[in-house]
């Protein structure tokens, strides 16, 4: 009985929470990290992609991998904000943050704190999707 009298249902709380997480994580990522990396160009992309390229033994891939990381931290983060192709965008950002976390863990847990937090947030979005307050819901919902 008490549950029915609440102002918002559990589903509404979940959708509002997903919206809040998407807005905060997406905005902070693109504003503080992604956009500057995307606009920096090939020298920055090469530095970004070099650790993963070396780890997989494909040194010539450092620029494309760095661009993909920049893309994930900027364009995919914008997609998260709007809830557009949310799960693929969250996957790209999760993978990027996983690589960044592993690299930063070499310097200690404190150094890896920020990428680990973004990894956690993007993974939560990946698992739950965009929620009702998103372009995904408006565009791709099925009529029931």
Task: Give a topology summary.
Elements: H1 10-40, H2 42-56, H3 62-82, H4 86-105, H5 113-128, H6 135-140
Helix pairs in contact: 1-3, 1-5, 2-3, 3-4, 4-5
Task: Please provide a brief summary of the model.
With 144 residues, the protein is mostly helical. 76% of the residues lie in helices and 0% in strands.
User: Would you identify the regions where 5 or more consecutive residues have pLDDT less than 50?
Assistant: none
* C-alpha end-to-end distance: 28 Å
**Shape verdict:** globular
Structural class: mainly alpha
Total of helices: 6
Number of domains: 1
Question: What tags apply to this protein structure?
Answer:
144 residues, mainly alpha, globular
